[in-house]
Structure formats: C-alpha cells, structure tokens
Automatic annotation (TrEMBL):
<feature type="domain" description="ABC transmembrane type-1">
    <location>
        <begin position="92"/>
        <end position="282"/>
    </location>
</feature>
<dbReference type="GO" id="GO:0005886">
    <property type="term" value="C:plasma membrane"/>
</dbReference>
<feature type="transmembrane region" description="Helical">
    <location>
        <begin position="117"/>
        <end position="139"/>
    </location>
</feature>
<dbReference type="InterPro" id="IPR035906">
    <property type="entry name" value="MetI-like_sf"/>
</dbReference>
<feature type="transmembrane region" description="Helical">
    <location>
        <begin position="81"/>
        <end position="105"/>
    </location>
</feature>
<keyword id="KW-1003">Cell membrane</keyword>
<protein>
    <submittedName>
        <fullName>Peptide transporter</fullName>
    </submittedName>
</protein>
<dbReference type="InterPro" id="IPR000515">
    <property type="entry name" value="MetI-like"/>
</dbReference>
<feature type="transmembrane region" description="Helical">
    <location>
        <begin position="12"/>
        <end position="33"/>
    </location>
</feature>
<keyword id="KW-0472">Membrane</keyword>
<keyword id="KW-0812">Transmembrane</keyword>
<dbReference type="Pfam" id="PF00528">
    <property type="entry name" value="BPD_transp_1"/>
</dbReference>
<dbReference type="GO" id="GO:0055085">
    <property type="term" value="P:transmembrane transport"/>
</dbReference>
<keyword id="KW-0813">Transport</keyword>
<feature type="transmembrane region" description="Helical">
    <location>
        <begin position="159"/>
        <end position="181"/>
    </location>
</feature>
<keyword id="KW-1133">Transmembrane helix</keyword>
<feature type="transmembrane region" description="Helical">
    <location>
        <begin position="256"/>
        <end position="282"/>
    </location>
</feature>
Amino acid sequence: MLRTTYGIFLKFIYVIIGIVLLSAFTGLFRNGIHLDLFVYMNSVGHIIFSFFNPDNLVVQAANMAKYSIFPSFWEFYRYSIILFLSSFFLSILIGIMLGFFAMLLPEKILRVLKGHLSFLEALPDLFTIVAVQFFIIQYFKSTGMLIFPVAGTFDDRPYFLPILVLSIVPSIQMFKISILLMTAEASKPYIEFVRSKGFHRTYLLSVHLLRNIAPNILNHGKSIILFLLSNMVIFERLFNINGITTFMITYPEPNIIAFSLTLFYLPIFLFFASMNIIIHIFTGQKVVF
C-alpha cells in the first residue's frame, strides 16, 4: 500500500512538472514566435517562484497598473470546477445506471440499443449544445416560459443546463462502455457458475459484475475527463460562461496558466487517487493510474 501511495504521489509530481513546462512554452508565443531557451527557462523559474509566492500572480490592466488575481480568481475557478466535476460524476452515474438496466433487457433489444448508441456517440458536441439551446429558445417563444437560462452573466450564472448539456455525450460514452464491460464480464465462467446456483440476474449485476468492472470503469473515466476538458473552452463561449478557461484566455500569463491548470487538476487527481486505493482494498485489483 505504501508503494502504491508513493507511486501515485510521484505521478502527481510528474503531471505538475508537465504543466509547468507546457505553460512556460506558451510564453514564447505571446508577441510572435520567439524560440529562445533563455526566455523559456526564465519563464519556468518565474512559474515555480509564483507557486511559492502567490502575491506574484498579477495581471496588467489597460492603464498598465498591476493587480493580484485574488480574490476574483476563485469565482472563476469555483464555477468551472463545479460544472466540470458535476458533469463528470453525472456522466459516470447515468452511464452505469443505464448500462445496468440495459443488461436486464432481452439480447435482441440490447443489440439494437448498441447500434443506436454508436450513432448518438458520433454526434458532434457542438451540435448537442446548440440543439439544446435552440429547443429551449423555441419553447420560450411558443409558451413564454424559459425553462432554464441558455447563457450566463457574471452575476447570474446558470448551473443546471450547462451541467446537463456537458454530460450528455460523456453519459452516452459511459453507457456504451458499461454495456461492453458487463457483457464481457458476464461471459466468464464464474458468472455461469453463480447463475447455476439460482441467483437472480439483478444480484449478479449489482454484486459481481459492477464490482469486478470497477477498475475498468475508472480507467475509462480518464477518457471522459479528457473529453470534458477538450470541450470546456467552446462550452464556456457558447454559454457565455465566465469560467477558468475564459480567465486563462483573458490573462495568458504563463504563471497564471500553470497555477490555474494545477488547481483544476488537483481535485481530479485526488478523486482518482482515492478511488484507486479504495478499489485496490475492496477488490484486490490494481488500476493503471
């Protein structure tokens, strides 16, 4: 267990080093392309210094005056992390629940369902977001009732609709993954043995299948994380959300980018690290972390 914890911590350090190096690289393109090794190393040092001296995290206003990013930064960060983590957990929950109930369906219906899932998964994310917004606007025009705000302002930030829309495609992906993993696990000999003892299918799914596919679910959860991250920029633009990506685009200082990405990665890392340890304790299986 100690070795596992040490390995997880070491990977966290590697990721932080990667964030620092990549963030410093963005500083070479602020005023054109300047591939200067000295400038790059100076930017790396500046980022590391800022991590230990948060007062150094400042932005420059139009009047050339410099201001600390705090406390306004926390509003951007808190809003984005709530949307992101809520969408992630909702995607995992919906995907697994739908997969569980789908496995209770007859085999013929399940095959048809898999085909439809492949089609839905192929829908562009932009199409999904615009389609939901269009539906709400048309409903508002027809009834005069606005179900949910389709865009946000700094003082009035929507939560429910952005979380719902951001989790649609990942939920479909996790739904499909859950079915594939459960189908593969259900074909193993021990399942046939337990079934021969007269246990109900619901018991097999909830007690044996879900527990044994948990490591693979966690591994595939990383692809959901990457999917959500890749959509955050365009998502915030379309919903007029003042989130962390908007903050980084507005203030593209290497040390601010590195600080923002590190804080954004921290809760994600803690979740996967905790789940990795929990799964190892209860199932004895190791997760590729």
